[in-house]
Amino acid sequence: MLEPSHNHELPAIPNKRYFTIGEASELCGVKPHVLRYWEQEFGQLADIKRRGNRRYYQRHDLLIIRQIRALLHDQGFTIGGARLRLSSNGARDESSQAKLVIRQMVAELDAVLVLLRS
């Protein structure tokens, strides 16, 4: 497991739509049981449950997980403090996340366009 201060050493998030809890755990440097706990504590973090009640996360969820990890491990926030920090940044983060999702969609559409042209 990574040391708390080594958030920059986390692997890049692959260009996929959904991630299992195991993949999210590896990509964010936290154990699966921690992710399940954080789902209860942070309203911004919501997995998608599909077949067989299995958890799946999207890219924006992984970004939130990494932000929570940084607040708790690197900056020394408590769960309550991190929850307040995330909620106070909510309006700004929603607009930046929306921009990120739009950029990702544009990139995916560009890739489809390239495939269609070839």
Give the ordered list of helices and strands: EHHEEHHH
Our estimate of the beta-strand percent is: 5-15%
So, CATH architecture?
A: Orthogonal Bundle
Structural class: mainly alpha
Number of strands: 3
Assign the CATH topology.
Multidrug-efflux Transporter Regulator, Chain: A, Domain 2
Oligomer: single chain
Distance between the termini: 43 Å
Question: Main sheet: which strands, in order across?
Answer: 1-3-2
User: Which whole number gives the mean pLDDT?
Assistant: 83
Task: Tell me what the structure shows.
This protein is mainly α. It has one domain: Orthogonal Bundle (Multidrug-efflux Transporter Regulator, Chain: A, Domain 2), CATH 1.10.1660. The chain has 5 helices and 3 strands. Strands 1-3-2 form a 3-stranded antiparallel beta sheet. Strand 2 and strand 3 form a beta hairpin. The longest helix has 28 residues. It is globular.
